[in-house]
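pls read this stuff:
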Amino acid sequence: MLHKDIFCIRVKKLRKGRGEQQKNLAEAIGATQASISDIENGRKATSFDKLAAICRHYNVSADYLPGLTDEARPLDPEKKEGTV
């Protein structure tokens, strides 16, 4: 599986795991709902700033999202948000 495909799947999985709508994630990272839909459906990539914002929002390390690791390690071990 390509890294882009893994990224799409994992962003969507994290969002749904938290029970959020695309508009909630969009608001949290300063994007539009349409851009979140494009990211989750593989139509668009994202910027490093948005990637970092997604990582902070879900408390997961950046290496998890594109599939460089299968472990969703938290950015802040004190938070439970990154649990998938």
